[in-house]
Amino acid sequence: MGVGVSVFFLTLGAILKFAIDDDVLGDAISIDTIGLIFMIVGGAGVVLSLVMTPRRGAMPEGRLMHRENPPRDDDD
Known about the structure:
Blueprint: H1 3-19, H2 31-52
Helix pairs in contact: 1-2
């Protein structure tokens, strides 16, 4: 889940939690609880997306900048 989807979940959760009345769907579904769950999922998604994204300028350990096999002089 990317940052954009996470922000979408945060926004949707906030709308469900704060902007919609509880009486819309009756007592079968708690809109506040669904909104809170969406906000938690969105917040966790933002944090994980930022933590898991590689930083610019950082080089992975397995990719060193040297030649494995130097060129050979074939004077045969």
